[in-house]
Design brief:
Blueprint lengths: L13 H4 L10 H24 L24 H25 L6 H22 L7 H23 L1 H14 L1
Helix pairs in contact: 2-3, 3-4, 3-5
Protein name: PGG domain-containing protein
Organism: Ficus carica (Common fig)
Main location: membrane
Length: 174
């Protein structure tokens, strides 16, 4: 007669650990490949939703709206949150792609294609967004967040020894 399976003491999330990055088993190339695929998917989805916003665009100039403007913009706060979040996701994914392909062959062509895509995204967002509904400087600021955060991270990581000495000195004198 067969023995019943032994009880395991793992949690329900034990299966999840087998899919996580493992430094002993996974190579940096594997990690880079996965990051490139995920970033490319995020870029495609966010680009498409910016070019063709949820709800579509108005088809006529009746009832106080303009043809070609986003229908979703009739809900200004929700549309604003959508545009900021979508732009932040797109710029983050593009930043990851550029970072991971920095030393690849054809990097110049990747940069040209990426900049062209971002310009297309920006012009599409500006074309479908009614001027009175969103302040565009906030959208441009959201696009810069990933780069600014990376620069600040680099600055603070290089200044960490100096900052730690300073804060130790401040803690001892107060």
């Amino acid at each position: 007669m067969a023995n019943p399976p032994e009880k395991t003491t793992t949690t329900n999330w034990g299966w999840f650990k087998s899919y996580q990055y493992n430094k002993q088993e996974d190579t940096p190339k594997d990690a880079r490949d996965v990051l490139l695929i995920v970033s490319a998917l995020i870029t495609a989805v966010t680009f498409q939703s910016g070019v063709n916003p949820p709800g579509g665009v108005w088809q006529d100039n009746e009832d106080g709206h303009t043809a070609g403007r986003a229908i979703y913009a009739t809900h200004p706060v929700a549309f604003y949150v959508f545009l900021i979040s979508n732009t932040l996701a797109l710029s983050s994914a593009v930043f990851v792609i550029i970072s991971l392909t920095y030393s690849f062959p054809f990097r110049c062509e990747i940069w040209i294609a990426t900049i062209s895509m971002l310009m297309t995204y920006g012009s599409a967002v500006f074309a479908v967004t009614p001027n009175e509904s969103v302040k565009f400087r906030y959208i441009l600021s959201a696009a810069a967040v990933p780069l600014v955060l990376r620069i600040l991270w680099k600055i603070f990581s290089r200044c960490k020894p100096i900052l730690s000495k300073y804060f130790r000195w401040v803690a001892t004198t107060s």
